[in-house]
Write a structure and sequence with these properties.
Blueprint: E1 12-16, E2 19-28, H1 29-40, E3 51-56, E4 65-67, E5 75-76, E6 85-87, E7 90-92, E8 101-106, E9 111-120, E10 126-131, E11 134-140, E12 146-154, E13 159-164, E14 172-188, E15 196-199, H2 207-223, E16 229-231, E17 240-243, H3 247-251, E18 264-269, E19 272-277, E20 279-281, H4 288-291, E21 296-298, H5 299-312, E22 315-316, E23 324-325, E24 332-335, E25 339-342, E26 348-350, H6 354-357, H7 363-368, E27 377-378, H8 385-388, H9 391-394, E28 404-405, E29 408-409, H10 423-438, E30 443-446, H11 458-463, H12 467-485, E31 490-495, E32 513-517, H13 522-528, E33 535-539, H14 556-568, E34 573-576, H15 588-599, H16 605-617, H17 621-633
Helix pairs in contact: 2-5, 10-12, 14-15, 15-16, 16-17
Amino acid sequence: MSIVFVSIMLFFVCSLGAENAFFEPLANSRADWDAAVSETGNPPVQGFRNWFFGFYDTDGKPETFQEFAHCSKSYWGDGNFSQGAIFRDSIAWSTGKNRDVVRRWRCPVEGQYQIIVEGRNKNQRRLCIYVDSKEVMRHTFSQSGDRIEYKTTVKAGSTVDFAWEKWGSSSLIGTFIINRMIPGLTIAEDSQSDYAIVIPENDPWDFSRRAAVLLQRVIEEMNGVKLPLLTDGGKIDKPAFYIGKTRQAAENNFALETLSTTEYMYSVKDGNIYLAGVNSIQYKGQNAEEVLRSPYRNGDHRAVVAFLENELGVRFLLPGRMGEHIPVANPLVIKANLSLRRKPDIPWHTAMDLVYLQNRDYDDYMVANNMFRQLHYRLHWGHSWPFSVPAEKYAKSNPEFFVMKGGKRHPDAIGNQLCISNAQVQEIMLQHIDQAFASGYKLYQLGQSDGFQACECQSCRELGETANERIWKVHRALAEKMAVKYPDCRINIMAYEVSQEPPVYFDSFPDNVVIELTKYDEVEFQKWLKFKAPFMVYTYWWGCYNELGYLPKRTPFMISEHMKRLKKYQVLDVYNCGYRDGLGGLQGPVLYLYGRLFDQVDLNPELLVEDYCRCSFGDAGPIMYSMFTDMHKYL
């Protein structure tokens, strides 16, 4: 499977005569190398994505280029570096006499190209760029890092060489990027624009307006012009961004009614840009602020954020305005043939707490990181027993509802521990589930009390030999009874602590059961496949209760592999215990890539970290990327 890099790269514009052109990423040395490793486990072969690796037999003579004959597990070149070596991130020295080490790219189609090198070198040596064997640029790189670019026409079959001079133990650490010019659509230039933003006249809960205000603000920060905000009821006599289910979107046959619950789209047609998703709410009252404190999904907002990230290079790195990266762009140009329709790889992501829910400044960050709580879901933070049979209500009147230890009932046991063989306890649990479904919930989380303590009464002993057997028998029976009355509702049962292992006392669940795993490696998923039940996952990646506390705990590769696994097993929802403990600081880049991977698990994790560093630290980005890369090696 190829690793995707296009959507996390910044795009560029240039002026060619009177027209503004858009430069689309075509080649990226790091991303292309990673794609080969992802597919084969080895560095790219000669010619992979038009890259070749070799050396000039004579210094400064492209016509003497020879391909390396040797390739190891991590680099091109022989073990003695007699002809140099090329790694994912670098071009290394040659010990041979008068030999430049060369990364060569062969152009697949004639066009106008932008050649970019971002790199650094502690010895301040030079790189030469040759196009069709003609030197077009040379640069001596600094230790802190430089970015150089060159624009030129390149013919099909022509070569672009990045030739690093031979010198001692000198290496150029960097990325080589080639972008192709395609037709561009100018949105704004010199703080002026012909464009407006249009939203539906009928906009329940102001969802489309909220998305429009974000787009309006970002364009103003990028180019200094505030686009007028209009509704679709009147005549629109200028090009526009149409957000949501506008009359114009329907007239242009975008069929937004065919979008699924989590899907979003944006597209350019006749110079207009259409952006939309599906807006869904759970709240049933009339208070506009309360709707945003209940689970909801603003699909229009998601479409706008995706457009800003993918097409304008905007980043939402941390909660709030201080965590945004909004690049200045003059002119502000997008591709003229934009078209995207996407359904997130993992649809639901529960990672916020009331701090986020009650602070509207965090909305954009939450949407960018795909933090959408599942709608109509009765969540109990993993433990439904204390909510259905609380000790505060039943301790005095019904002590027999609670765990027996040493011959005595303990309503005061930590965690609200129950006697689950008690018929009344089971009936009250059923009533609690029934009330949830009757009030409109479609999914109910069923899980035993935390810090589970097994009841020692005779009835519980007869229920099963182990705590695992007792819990699974009771929970399965509850789900089975609810399936009759509410066939369209589902119960997600926690596989946690003593119930973590799959039951061996039966081999199937009712169709209304979803299994929520608290261990989620390949082995655990395989254990549960025989039950043919859908999965949810309850993660413990970020909380300060982990051994490293508030220090960084996860690496980009680790999280990337986990997310690919969740997609593989079609996980419906991910709950993140202790998520806010990991925000920012040394864990910042990995939290950023984690949020992005919900939308598209195949994004390149290393490039996402590099992207985070570039956008967060500016000129210090390369040094910070190096620091984070080194740190992740030892985690």
